[in-house]
Design a protein that fits this description.
The complex is a heterodimer.
Chain A (H helix, E strand, L loop, with lengths): L4 H10 L7 E4 L2 H11 L3 E5 L12 E4 L2 H11 L3 E2 L9 E2 L3 E5 L3 E12 L6 E7 L6 H7 L4 E6 L7 H10 L6 H20 L2 E12 L4 E3 L3 E4 L8 H4 L9 H9 L2 E4 L4 E5 L2 H13 L6 E4 L6 H13 L5 E8 L4 H15 L5 E7 L2 H10 L4 E4 L2 H11 L2
Parallel strand pairs in A: 14-16, 16-17, 17-18
Antiparallel strand pairs in A: 1-6, 2-3, 2-6, 4-5, 7-8, 7-10, 8-9, 10-11, 10-12, 13-15
Chain B lengths: L10 E4 L4 H12 L4 E5 L7 E2 L2 E4 L2 H8 L3 E4 L3 H13 L4 E4 L6 H12 L4 E4 L4 E4 L3 E4 L8 E8 L3 H12 L4 E6 L10 H10 L5 E7 L4 H12 L4 E6 L23 H10 L3 E2 L6 H15 L4
Parallel strand pairs in B: 1-2, 1-5, 2-4, 5-6, 6-7, 10-11, 10-12, 12-13, 13-14
Antiparallel strand pairs in B: 3-4, 8-9, 8-11
Classes of the chains: A alpha+beta, B alpha/beta.
Amino acid sequence: MKIHEYQAKNLLRAYNVPVPKGDVADTPEKAREIAASLGKTCIVKAQIHAGGRGKGGGVKVAKTPDEAYNAAKAILGMQLVTHQTGPEGKKVLKVLVEETSNIKKELYLGMVVDRARDRECVVFMASEAGGMEIEEVAKATPEKIIKCMVPPVVGFSPFEGRKLAFGLGLGTDKALNAQLTNIAKGLYQLFVEKDASLVEINPLVLTAEGDLMAVDAKINFDDDGLFRHPDIKDLRDENEEEPLEVLAKNAGVNYIKLDGNIACMVNGAGLAMTTMDLIKMAGGEPANFLDVGGGANPDQIEKAFRILTADPNVQGILVNIFGGILRCDRVANGLIQAAKNVDIKVPMVIRLQGTNVEEGRRLLKESGLKFTVADGLYEAAEKIVSLIK
Amino acid sequence: MAILLDKNSRVVVQGITGSEGAFHTRESVKFGTKVVAGVTPGKGGMDVDGIPVYNRVIDAVEQQGANVSALYTPAAFTADAIIEAIEAGIGLIVAMTEGVPVTDMIKVKQVLKTSKSRMIGCNCPGITTPGVGKIGFMPSFIHKVGNVGLISRSGTLTYEAIWQLTCLGIGQTTSIGIGGDPLPGSNFVDLLELYEKDPDTKALVLIGEIGGTAEEEAAEYIKSNVSKPVVSFIAGRTAPPGRRMGHAGAIIAGGKGTADEKFKALEAAGVIIEKNPAEIGKRVQEVLAKVGKKGKKK
């Protein structure tokens, strides 16, 4: 799960990581109020779940409260387009108004779980090339990124803070060394206590006054850990999510919208990805990823059909179910019932495999509904692609 | 012969009294699996179809000689249940549970490293040795006794591949789903070694997914340690970066972990790659025909 920058900064404060003074506003008036209370030059930043906000016009400097009012007025309600939002952009509903910093140096500090087999721990990544896209730094100058694994048995140790500080060129300054160690310690605690999956401070700024401060912050959480963090779960912002995906999530269906025109419904994530691959191989474009769940019961199937048909780009549907414990005849009955209830107007190819498959296919053929039945995996993809051409 | 699950396996089911646990225990008993005990804290003394239920794993070990654990516990209690099984000296732990937090698995893996236990999962379809037994969700009818070993990160795609083999008359030694989570108890590399040593396994199928580096690590290992032919398919060539494709581990992050990179690494290691998932079975058939003629790949 992703959260907004202002929410991430509130969490950082709670873990003693210094962040600029500021607050969030959803009206220009509120932005003016915050700017007035800060009493100095401010920065007004659009709050959406995507990077590259500055280039898209979502970040403005305001020298006076009135300028903050105008900046907020321009940004709030705008459809902000960045390289991460897609061409349609995202509507801005909140801005963060905070004090600006006297930047002497911009650094990068990030954390993820290293999945490699011989590591499997939380790892810090730091770089003196802050403020830039870290992926580009990693590609062009990998030597500029230093890594620091935290052994899970002992947790964060102060020497790791010193290691990071020296790596960032701050090691010889005793005060900065201590500041960085404290920041890293706080971030590690936050990461493991709240089940984060990614933390990025980019940039971590060294100010002219000699302080380190998190000027931007991105935190993602492990969805599987949310059950034990109701405070984090509350930070979810449905406005930031694809409406159909919200609908799917609430229905217990695993759905991701894509840009193509062939919808697919599959049981199991691996088979669902494979079905997308097959559609592409056959010359089509998948409209989505949809895992209806291992059970594929009639209720889930009906909900899935409603989600698929709500996407206006969809011109055909491919259903691919491997009936295991659940028999194909029952899946077929579920499909027939759901198709009747949802009133599907686009062509549909159904490929069933597994237990009682003959009976399942017979039921589909005799249902009177316009299903095209396919036997083979690739044949199913070819059939749906040719049907919509 | 086969790997991991054999005729000496005595299974304890953790979470046997839950609806999933009870259902899949019945299915596995029908398949021939020796299920000797169940564990649900607070329900000791009960039985499920005559299988005694205990409060603690150690009781199942001491009183029924359990040496394999099948876990169907709720996600919130799964790390605890796995560590209990390790402490009780269970040699093979197979966890089907979906949704276990990554930080829990970091801890579990630390305990595993200092133990003699091996773990499969979480979020996996289980393990089947045809003719001997099965643990987990794999449908019984898809299997057939034979000489191909299959390892996969998927669920239903695994069934699909096994079924393709069986329909062509090709049986399996042991089929294993290692699960779709970011930190699985066992990775491809951990299991390839066992298949290589198993005299009955003549060829291998490796089914990967986007995300992580498990397939690249497998490729590196196969290059110098596996003499048997390996056929491989990777799911998710068309998946967009940054989106988690159902499995917690299936995500192309920071441009790494794409299907094409994985295919490339495997191909460079001498693995026979098959990009059409409908052709996995046929490809194995060709490979086995060659093995039959020459006896060996190298």
